[in-house]
Amino acid sequence: MVEGKLPFAEGASINMPSLFSGVNYPFWKIRMKIFIESLNRGVWDVIVNGPFVPKTIIDGVTID
């Protein structure tokens, strides 16, 4: 890392996520997780688990 240069670009605030500069991915990933969860916890759950698609089962047949 270049001295005096942070591993993330502009956006170190609660209004804009930090931009990944190509270094220190683990640090950036944690910051992004916190930022996304601060907007809506459900969004992070979709990123990790995929979307929830409700299904109905009628007479043993699954209907999307």
Q: Which strand-content bin applies to the residues?
A: 5-15%
What share of the residues lie within helices? 25-40%
Spatial shape:
elongated
Indicate how many domains the architecture comprises.
Answer: 1
Give the radius of gyration.
Answer: 19 Å
Strand order of the largest sheet: 1-2
Give the number of DSSP strands: 2
Order of helices and strands: HHEE
For the largest beta-sheet, the strand count, sense and barrel status come to: 2 strands, antiparallel
Q: How far from one another are the termini? A: 50 Å
Helical region count? 2
Overall residue-averaged pLDDT value: 78
Q: Ranges with pLDDT <50 over ≥5 residues?
A: none
Quickly give the structural class.
alpha+beta
Provide the fold topology.
Elements: H1 25-39, H2 41-49, E1 56-58, E2 61-63
Antiparallel strand pairs: 1-2
Features:
64 residues; 2 strands; 2 helices; single chain; elongated; two-stranded antiparallel ribbon; alpha+beta
Explain this structure to me?
The chain is α+β, with helices and mostly antiparallel strands. The chain has one domain (1-64). It is 38% helix and 9% strand. The chain has two helices and two strands. The protein has helices spanning 25-39, 41-49; strands at residues 56-58, 61-63. It has a two-stranded antiparallel ribbon. Strand 1 and strand 2 form a beta hairpin. Helix 1 (25-39) packs across helix 2. The radius of gyration is 19 Å and the shape is elongated.
